[in-house]
Specification:
Layout (H helix, E strand, L loop, with lengths): L7 E5 L3 H12 L3 E6 L3 H11 L2 E3 L11 H10 L2
Parallel strand pairs: 1-2, 2-3
Length: 78
């Protein structure tokens, strides 16, 4: 079991990169709880695949999510 398996992650975006990232996270036991896209249809399409909640309003992002920490870690490794 990985260290993030009990943490919830929000994907910001629903395009090709977010889709591949979301699939990889899901396959490795991470919980993607929300998918954000300014386009409701895009958010809903990816959220359905990941069994998560689609959102199209940034104000609806659950602030308790691990997005900030994960994003910083990914950027530091560039």
């Amino acid at each position: 079991m990985n260290t993030f398996s009990t943490h919830k992650i929000v994907l910001l975006g629903a395009g090709n990169v977010a889709t591949q990232l979301g699939k990889a996270l899901d396959e490795n036991g991470y919980l993607v709880s929300q998918v954000y896209s300014p386009t409701k249809r895009s958010a809903a399409t990816l959220a359905k695949k990941l069994k998560s909640t689609p959102i199209s309003d940034l104000k609806k992002i659950d602030q308790s999510q691990e997005v900030d920490h994960l994003a910083h870690k990914l950027c530091e490794n560039r």
